[in-house]
Amino acid sequence: MTELLSDFHEDVDHMTDEEFDAAFEKAQELSAYFREIGPKYDIENTFAYPTIAKFKESGLGAFSVPKRYGGMGGNILQTSKIISELSRGDSAITLAYNMHFIMVGMCMGLFSEEQNKLWLGRVVEGDIVFGPFSEQRAGFSGLADMKAVPQPEGGWRIYGKKVWGTLGEASDIVTTNATITDAEGNLPESFEERVEAESFFVAEFDVDENGQGDGIRIEKTWDALGMHATGTHTIHFEGFYIPEDGFVCEWRAGAFGVLEWASLMFASIYLGMQYRVLEEAREVLSKKTLGATFGAIAAAETKVSNVGHIIDGIGDMASRVELSRRVVYRTCQELVDGDDDNWPVELRFPYIGLAKTFCSENVMHMTKRAMSLVGGSSFKKGAIFERLYRDSAASMFQPLNSDQSCTYIGEQLLAPDELND
Amino acid sequence: MSTFKDADEVYALIGRAMEACVVEPAFVEATKDGNLVVLIKQTDPEAYILVDFPGQKVLVGDAAQAASSTVQLRMSSDNANKFWQGKLNFTLAMAQRKVKLDGKRSTALALLPLTGPIFETYKAILAEAGRTDLLVG
Ligand SMILES: Cc1cc2nc3c(=O)[nH]c(=O)nc-3n(C[C@H](O)[C@H](O)[C@H](O)COP(=O)(O)OP(=O)(O)OC[C@H]3O[C@@H](n4cnc5c(N)ncnc54)[C@H](O)[C@@H]3O)c2cc1C
Predict the structure, then answer these.
(1) What is the complex's ipTM, to 2 decimals?
(2) For labelling alongside A99, which of A82, A382, B19, B122 has CA 20 to 30 A away?
(3) Which of A2, A3, A4 to mutate to test the interface with B (most CBs of B within 10 A)?
């Protein structure tokens, strides 16, 4: 890293309100398109291929790239608003492109000046980035079993596989983590050495229409409860060559300072979904009439918008949306203003993660509640509510999840004052 | 058993490396307009070193303790010895509570990538003082 992060933040903060409004309009158009085609790709259980051209056309891929590299210079709060707007249209398609925004955000804080010029320049030209990190043994927190074997001519050959490779089918640039081995491909023996050797790389991702590349390939394995259109496939690295200038930094030390881009972009996805759940629930429940009923309410004509628990339910959902919005916006703003400096350093990561876990808990609560309020029709295939219910379940997994956040925080707070030597 | 005899030895070795640190051009450039004053509190042996980056000065012992600081860094003297030779992974040490950082985080952490040249200086100081036994392999 050749510059202080504070200089960097100054630079990205410069998107004006007018520029933001123009970009947001583009996001609204793209969101409407995602909304229109989302159901088809949910049913077909594939990546939404036609979105690639539309996404590139929108220019939004360069939204958070600093202006000095040719991007729009959106900060993390402005980016969050764009993501939520897209997610309001379609959560699965947006979760896929979210990977691009996460990786651009993380990379620009970790790349050298030359790497920023090269790779962010490519993003400005329309290239898409993805980041397969998680492996089978343990997700994001697992040290990479994937190996980077040093080559006599310089650079590394990468061997291993990543089982959560969202957006690979649309991507031109791959970022990943692998552990640098000795020349024979042996991983370091001690835990400390493994941490030191785990490294972050960036490289060209050039595969054909069947996902086959030189030393790298996509195996189409994605088949899950929800988030069908994310195309979260397995990426095999089979001697994939990364030249020396593809090394970015030591992975964990680097990631520590930029993980907000992952955590808060996920939060923004689930906030956007909350907007959509509320919108859809209001749409149905403000109009639905049950006619003559005999039960909790026995009447000749029962309009659901007059039923107590439905009124409360909508009020509760709207309150959750507003609270979530404030939590996400406020967290982003504290980062923009540098107020996170006042948080205990060891709690920075889980504290940033609180926005994501809060949105996650709320969106899961809301999708379930919306189904119960709307009634049985919401449970049928093709109904937006069952779709949102399935998609929202994915929020349990991306880092940090609620359980891990609480463990992280509790452990720190209960630790003795003495150092752990 | 600590690697250092006593606090005075810590000051003579690590304190001296810090004196080189505050005039190192990369640090001077990165810290000249800020208020980064780091109080390094070492344990076993107990020792205090205050590194005033904008003021380009280093205080030790009681004077260091009495001065005000914007960042407090706590670690054992053994870990400090490793750290100043580039042999302590700071992020891991923080996660494992071997190092404790309090106060303004961002400026302090932004300096980490600049520490490289100091490692050689510290190793040279150890060699000059005849303490090559403190060199970490
Ligand atoms: C739709 C979707 C898309 C995704 N896309 C990507 C992607 O593009 N790139 C990518 O890298 N990943 C991606 N992921 C993977 C995701 O980030 C997680 O890595 C993955 O869900 C596995 O992690 P986990 O913690 O859920 O499970 P595991 O790591 O298997 O954890 C199992 C259990 O242990 C707990 N646990 C895990 N680690 C720790 C720890 N350090 N301390 C204490 N407890 C722990 C967990 O909370 C859980 O209870 C995606 C996931 C989903 C659902």
Answers:
(1) 0.84
(2) A382
(3) A4
